Amino acid sequence: MCFELDSVPPIPAISGAAVSHEDLVLEAEDGNRFAAFAALPDEPSRVGVVILPDVRGLYRFYEELALRFAERGYAAAAFDYFGRTAGVAKRDDGFPYMDHVAQTTPAGIQADVGAAAAHLRGAGCETIFTVGFCFGGRNSWLSAAGGHGLAGAIGFYGRPGVGNDGSPGPIQRAAEFEAPILALQAGDDQHITAEDNAAFERALTAAGVEHELVTYDGAPHSFFDRSYEQFADASADAWGRVLAFIQRRSAS
């Protein structure tokens, strides 16, 4: 599990920032209808961020994260993975998300990423990034090979190797990446080893993909959470790197 249901992004809200937000139902090219949440700054933004949640799909943490991006002048859309199997209605805390994770496919997730990116482009965004966490971190990196025209793909504590279903992961698909990569990994992650991260970095280097891979020593999986006060410095550094990565590649 990546976050508790009452988790909050470890990012201060900007008091008085002018943003709007709405619940959405988007439709992918394959006809899938799925839930999403968009947050927009009141001043039009040419930069948009597609947010890929952890295994539980769309819930409060990612809606709050979208708002934090919007407060900083970036349009953001967080989306849900389970439109194909659970529909678009709001869910309670007992939702059996892992049953639905098992039914997702890499192609289906990328179709939904494409729809979320298209929504942001329809709102005036010209430059699109993805950012994801855990399951979403892995799929954020894979979005760099999804034909979405991304400016960059950011992932927190994603698994870079072969998937549980045998599908190739970011390591195996690095040569297909068409966007720079930012990887923010947890040094004390029980499921992602230092060798996994080293293999990912070697694959990116061999493929000539611009990248930055940072490992936070001692930090556990899902450290990017306000409740992990002892890792506040790691969270602040990671958020700073996310904003710097977006700013650099938005200006180029």
Provide a descriptive summary of the structure in words.
Helix 5 links the parallel strand 5 and strand 6. The protein has helices spanning 60-71, 83-86, 97-101, 106-122, 135-142, 170-173, 194-206, 232-251, and strands at 19-27, 33-41, 47-52, 75-79, 127-133, 152-156, 181-186, 211-216. The chain is built from eight helices and eight strands. It has an eight-stranded mixed beta sheet, with helices on both faces. It is an alpha/beta fold. Helix content is 33%, strand content 21%. The termini are far apart. The chain is globular.
Q: Helix-strand pattern, N to C?
A: EEEHEHHHEHEHEHEH
Structural class: alpha/beta
The low-confidence parts are none
Q: What fraction of the residues are assigned to beta strands by DSSP? A: 15-25%
| Rounded Rg | 17 Å
How can the largest sheet be summarized? 8 strands, mixed
Assembly state of the chains shown: single chain
Number of strands: 8
Shape: globular
- Share of helix, binned: 25-40%
Distance between the termini: 37 Å
Mean pLDDT: 94
Number of helices: 8
Strands across the major sheet, in which order? 1-2-4-3-5-6-7-8
Provide the descriptors you would attach to this structure in a database record.
252 residues; alpha/beta; eight-stranded mixed beta sheet; globular
Give a nutshell description of this structure:
The protein has about 250 residues and is an alpha/beta fold.
Describe the protein's topology.
Elements: E1 19-27, E2 33-41, E3 47-52, H1 60-71, E4 75-79, H2 83-86, H3 97-101, H4 106-122, E5 127-133, H5 135-142, E6 152-156, H6 170-173, E7 181-186, H7 194-206, E8 211-216, H8 232-251
Parallel strand pairs: 3-4, 3-5, 5-6, 6-7, 7-8
Antiparallel strand pairs: 1-2, 2-4
